[in-house]
């Protein structure tokens, strides 16, 4: 199974096409938009079957919107990572393991377009043409390396993973915002971002097509006082932006009128440890623990031909090193990792070496 979305064109991340290939049935392309999202017969037909997807985390949320949830999952991208392949794009794995070269060219297209051109449909169908064969080859490779049980744990974790939650203060991800540290200017970026987001959501247009990030930052820095000054700025001179100038100026004026108590903090508040590059100043002991943990985990990953980020989530490593458990024995570390979502195979490979990294060095 695969999906095609319209990222970069539409606000929503809905599936605009669902591709399926099943032994005995061939390849089917389903247009959920034309069906109004009512695909109950498909939901029933797929119930209880194993789904084969490539990079499943990208597709599962939009499939769930359609009521499609797998009973069993095999993720060929994740399988490729665990098998130690450095390049795990679908086309790369198909060419290396099966000897076929997939057609490229429409992955970033506007899949909300109707009617879809025939060559786009062919491209979409090819994405599932060989997924089952690729799955079988990867399964055999994982068995050969003794990693199949690891992969099955990872697939199940991906299948059961909660849907992504909305980001806290998503406006802080505006490209170029690192140039701004003044709270009043940050408030202007926030106000413009929120106005743009509301328009994009209402029109189902990608926010960057309503107004690019660079224009938000430029307007926040320059702080134009009236429509004429704002309309003279790059991007805002365009016909579409001139029609919306009142919306953008209103956002800037709301930000300018905020009391100091309502201005955003210069940097986002985190519920976890600070950035690792500040640890040496804030907590040298924690920095030493992290350095030791990273060295040990890299050695384990290399010994098992794994990407270190798949061996153990970097965020979990940082949190554990910043605030280690009271019991830093292998058993205590294993309990901490399990509570943080680590799988059994990860804990088996890492609890001992992390225990050593977290154990304070004896005083001279």
Question: Quick summary of this structure?
Answer:
Residues 182-262 form the HRDC domain. It comes from Saccharothrix ecbatanensis. With 364 residues, the chain is mostly helical.
What's the story with the biggest beta sheet?
Answer: 3 strands, antiparallel
Q: Give the topology string: H per helix, E per strand.
A: EEEHEHEHHHHHHHHHHHHHHHHH
Q: Which residues sit in consecutive blocks of at least 5 with pLDDT less than 50?
A: none
Anisotropy-based shape: flat
CATH architectural category of the largest domain: 2-Layer Sandwich
Total strands: the figure is 5
How would you state the average pLDDT, rounded?
A: 94
Task: Please state the structural category.
Answer: mainly alpha
Percentage of residues in DSSP E strands: 5-15%
Please tally the helical runs, counting DSSP H or I stretches of 4 or more residues. 19
Percent of residues in helices comes to 40-55%
Walk across the major sheet and give the strand order.
1-2-3
CATH class of the largest domain: Alpha Beta
The count of domains is: 3
CATH superfamily of the largest domain: Ribonuclease H-like superfamily/Ribonuclease H
Separation, N- and C-terminal Cα atoms:
60 Å
In angstroms, what is the radius of gyration?
Answer: 25 Å
CATH topology-level name of the largest domain: Nucleotidyltransferase, domain 5
List the helices and strands and how they pair.
Elements: E1 2-4, E2 17-22, E3 26-30, H1 40-46, E4 50-53, H2 56-65, E5 72-75, H3 76-82, H4 90-98, H5 118-129, H6 131-145, H7 148-160, H8 183-203, H9 207-210, H10 213-222, H11 227-231, H12 239-243, H13 245-256, H14 279-282, H15 284-303, H16 308-311, H17 314-322, H18 330-339, H19 344-358
Parallel strand pairs: 4-5
Antiparallel strand pairs: 1-2, 2-3
Organism: Saccharothrix ecbatanensis
Protein name: Ribonuclease D
Pfam family, one: HRDC
